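sanity check this fold:
=====
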Amino acid sequence: MPLFFLIPLCTALVTGYFFKNSTDEIAYIAGVFAAISLILSLILAPWQIQFALLIIVLIISNRLLQENESK
């Protein structure tokens, strides 16, 4: 399984750290770059990882919907 998707993922994590700890104008640019890198890493990820993330999102969304309906 190729691990090319880890490069933009690590880049997104580092720029996200800078976004959180910076208060300058560069923080907004870092935030945009982090979001783009995260999306790119999800596109490049193998189908097994994409499928696992899809299942996790479906389970979490179903639980949240059940909690909101019970209120």
